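SEVERITY: medium
COMPONENT: batch folding queue
REPORTER: lab tech (J.R.)

DESCRIPTION
The queue accepted two submissions in a row. Attaching both inputs and their returned structure tokens so the on-call engineer can compare them side by side.

ATTACHMENT 1
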Amino acid sequence: MKKALIVVDVQNDFVEGGSLECKGGKEVAKNIKRMLDSDKLKNEYSLIISTQDWHKGDRHSNGGHISASPDYIDTWPTHCIANTKGADFAEPLIATDFDHLMLKGYGSPSYSGFSKNAYEKENKSLSLQEILKTENITSVDIVGIAFDYCVAQTAKDASKEGLNVRVLKYLTATINQENENLIRNELTDLEIEVID
């Protein structure tokens, strides 16, 4: 069984001090980096993939995802604009930590790394599904930000792809703590293992 690690949206705008900060985001970034640098990781995962939220600069060009008056459910403040500091990886993570970088959300809302408009940064014709299939990946662990949105949606879509899925909850941060139990139940109902 070949396994991949998917690191979801650990970006400056999603950690403390960012435009859409998640409490504990900086600590999550540090802990993921420690994991990536460990010898155990090299033995456990065949592939390390990151997703990045990657939006157009004009809030009117993002399918209603970015709003001047966000509701924090379907619309959000300006965040993760392509090629800005806010869209960069949160320290201490860097692009070379990953085998593939998946960009998502350019021109339309995309919570999942499996979204139709998500693509590999160096080869825009490659989807996450194609990468995993080519590498014969059958199982994924998912970490990152935010547990209740992009991590959860990526996990749900990975499950739909027929993959064995685990969410390493201790390596995630959450936007809305009130949603945490609901999201956890949704994931476990889909036989996605959530590990604290």
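ATTACHMENT 2
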Amino acid sequence: MLSLCGIYIFLLIGMVLADFRFIDIKSIKNFFNDPNIISSLKLSIASCSITTVLCLWVAIPIGYILSRYEFRGKSILDSILDIPIMLPPLVIGICLLFFFSSPFVKYFEEIFINIFKGSFIANWFGWEPQYWTFNPAFTKLSVIIAQFMVACAFAVRIMKSTFDEMNPRKEEVALTLGCSKGQSFWLVALPNAKRGIITAATLAWARSLGEFGPILIFAGTTRMKTEVLSTSVYLEFSVGNIAMATTISMAMIMTAIFINIIMRQFGGIKLSHD
């Protein structure tokens, strides 16, 4: 068992160090001077950060509800939330593409356009609702949606486990002292879940950074538009630019490590004052 653990750690370190074989000074300079790569880096950081906030906004209440309440259909809901974890990433991208192109979405799109078309609000702001669309495919928004659909599932699991490990007694005491359920959540449960929140945020950000399949299908790889670091690796590798592909890969690894260290240190400082 210990030997297998050693092999696993060796492989982790080895596959990272192996990238240095193809990295040189020229590829590093090209990385910082290539406008396409800089654009994908900026979009990656921005989209991952937005996705992380959205994941926490959804995962915290869902995790709390699944942990603290019993209701009909809970097991079904719990299983549905695991779908993004079980499905291949490419399938998620295909499902998103088909969903936003479905008659169901187009029906609500037509209703929305008819409501605002010619309205005072549209005229005031100079909007043209007839050109609006509910299909975000192949836009920057589709990058965030693709990342969110996968990363949020992991964040929900972490938050549910966090609340499961917390003793609900403090929340019950808060209720007996006159707090409402909402107050007991905000004032008692949420502060005690700091470590889980930080872990969920870290994993959501890192998972979003490494997302490839759904982005490839749903957002595409248009340079200077929907290209992120993960798709940059794919594009550079597909044209035989191994040095740039490995340089981008190493940049992703270093970025993920840096964000993990910052968030864990930040969480450690906060938790030390509890």
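NOTES FROM REPORTER
The chain has 15 helices and no strands.
No errors were logged for either attachment.
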